[in-house]
Each structure stands twice: as structure tokens, then as C-alpha cells.
Amino acid sequence: MLWTIIVILLVLWLIGLIGHIGGGLIHLLLVIAIIVFIINLVQGRRGL
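Above: the chain's sequence. Below: its structure in C-alpha cell form.
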């Protein structure tokens, strides 16, 4: 599910870059998704 959210945000981000739609909101959501992904990776490695 996390991968799906990241892919959707990346697509929206690329559309925003091309069409200048959404402004800073899409960039903010992308940064949040990357931070959550990194935290998920760190916690997953610690669990092993």
C-alpha cells in the first residue's frame, strides 16, 4: 500500500512539474511520502 501511495504521488508530482498544477502541496506530499518511506525502511531493518 505504501508503494501505491508513493507511485501516485510521484505521478502527481510529475504532472505538477509539467503543467504547473498544484503548486507546493504536491511537493509537500512527496516529501512526506519519502520521509515515511525512509522511516519504514529503517524500522524494517531494525526488526530483522
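Helices lie at 2-19, 24-47.
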